[in-house]
Amino acid sequence: MSIDFIGVWIAALLTLFIFSFLYKDNPFYKFAEYLYVGISAGYFAAYYYHNVMVPNLFVPLQNHQFDYLIPLVLGITILFRLFPKYSWVSRYGFAYSVAMGAGINFIVYLQANAMQQINATILPLISLEGGFNLGQTISNIIIVIGVSAGLVYFYFSKPHKGFLGSTARLGIWFLMISFGASFGYTVMARISILIGRMQFLINDWIKPTIALISGS
């Protein structure tokens, strides 16, 4: 029995341990869960140390770039969260991280998501590229109506009555269709992962094990 086949057995047993939660919570599931969390924590700790801290902090400090002492001190302040008496010191590191992250992500999100979605919504109702295109025209009309109705639904300055109320209800339909499609896509992705694990159990574990036992 090769080392690779032993690894397949370990992976298969851990997969079954995780699946056992479908029956009820049990020690096998807890063992697999704790093992996964522990290995993940150790792996990412080593990964971030060698790929983030070393090149972005220790190497610059070795090159006498002492301005990097500022993020080092802020990072150390976060560790004070582990000591209840001095946990207030960690607020400085957390405040800086949250403020910096919010500022950077706001600009990135605005440019990569909001502006692109606005540009993608500003469409001609009648598509005349290369001649009249009926399919593209219908698609453009649906997008413009759906976005407009969805925005009206979130307009709360006036009661949703009359034309405004009808448009808001139409917006709800578009929102529900969008949420349903997103949820369906998520379920489909999870089902594909499940299929992959089942194929692994059957093709890489059960069949080779039967062949090994039968001697074929």
* Helix count, DSSP H or I runs of 4 or more residues: 6
Reading the helices and strands in chain order gives HHHHHH
Computed structural class: mainly alpha
User: Can you count the beta strands?
Assistant: 0
Helix content: over 70%
Distance between the termini: 14 Å
Overall shape: it is extended
Uncertain spans: none
Using the CA coordinates, give the radius of gyration: 28 Å
Strand content: under 5%
Strand and helix layout:
Elements: H1 3-19, H2 27-62, H3 69-79, H4 90-121, H5 134-153, H6 162-214
Overall description:
There is one protein chain. The protein is an all-alpha fold and about 220 residues long. Helices cover about 80% and strands about 0% of the residues. The mean pLDDT is about 90.
